[in-house]
């Protein structure tokens, strides 16, 4: 099979994996090496001429020994199969990088033969890139559950970020749809990666040239909408993963029908839950940066996120007794709870009010989104003039603010073969 044919098959097979992130670390270029990495250098971004600057996202192979019902690469599915040799993938990566098509490599794989054999091939590919081709760019690699811990460690010493896909939000769903995978097999490498990162950081404090293990951390991904778990269950699992395994990020992937299995939603009538995915990302942002907890956002009486507005506004409407927040006296935690006030604008407020009291015009200059925040703030005890609205009216207003944003189409990612 021609190399371009392999690339077409294996790049397309990798498109359902959403876990592409920014680099998360800085590494300057060095004499005799090719490439470097910057902290925010490898996200999916679009340049002024429309070119997508991102990672080469590809599978080592889509020949899989497993038969997961939700996966397009499952053993029982009749699709074209291909596999890269480690050398072929190295040549592709270096060729694309030198042409400025990509900024790094995102390498995953189906399970060929068994987890150990698959990981060995991935390790050999990364070893060639780092040691023979002297590639210093960003590499994100998928750790294969069930692989020998020594192989996973070797993979982490060569890659910048590792991820282990948890796939489904509960052990019950995993057992039903992916009988070859076990919850314990997925969580074991997460724990190993967490401990490896901690040990590596301790060693670097003692010796600056100590080998770095997954310096950009680890992440995971779960599929949303293929199984009946509520948003509350998903966010509770997410909170637990952040607390226990210190993940950099959890990714959510709206289920796309690729199977006619009776265990999955019927493809004919099913629409990918993209809005639900969007709300989960917003809630995840609140967990990571706004000091919310999963149990604050959802409970037994409200197990799912409101699709009409973002989770922060939903929380504010359910806790009107917390408001209004006096902007000239409130602490950082209270400011973060106000809709329309972000992490950056909250810090600006704390700095600016040292000089003098803030008014609503000053808040606008600091980046506060007043069309939301004005209903939940006071400045020196005053609310905006003529601002009187009922609880129902406030709900309608916040819902109306969401409609223009939700109506805008998402930009399409360009192919490496597009002009």
Describe this structure in words.
- The chain has helices at 3-13, 86-98, 115-132, 149-158, 171-177, 183-206, 231-245, 274-289, 294-297, 311-318, 332-336, 343-352, 360-365, 370-373, 391-407; strands at 45-46, 52-59, 102-108, 138-142, 161-163, 218-224, 249-254, 325-326, 377-378.
- With 419 residues, it is an alpha/beta fold.
- It has two domains: 3-222, TIM Barrel (Alpha-Beta Barrel); 311-407, no CATH class.
- The strands form two sheets. The chain has a seven-stranded mixed beta sheet.
- Helix 2 (86-98) packs across helix 3, helix 3 runs parallel beside helix 4 and helix 4 (149-158) crosses helix 6 (183-206).
- It is globular and about 70 Å long.
- It starts with a helix and ends in a 12-residue tail after the last helix.
- Residues 45-51 and 407-419 have low confidence and may be disordered.
How many individual β-strands?
9
CATH architecture of the largest domain: Alpha-Beta Barrel
The helical percent reads: 40-55%
What's the CATH class label of the largest domain? Alpha Beta
Provide the gyration radius in Å. Answer: 24 Å
How large is the count of helical segments? 15
CATH topology category name of the largest domain:
TIM Barrel
Describe the main β-sheet briefly.
Answer: 7 strands, mixed
Round the mean pLDDT to the nearest integer and report it.
87
Q: How far is the first residue's CA from the last residue's CA?
A: 24 Å
Number of domains: 2
Shape: globular
Element string (H = helix, E = strand): HEEHEHEHEHHEHEHHHEHHHHEH
- Helix-strand category: alpha/beta
Strand line-up in the sheet with most strands: 1-2-3-4-5-6-7
Strand percentage: 5-15%
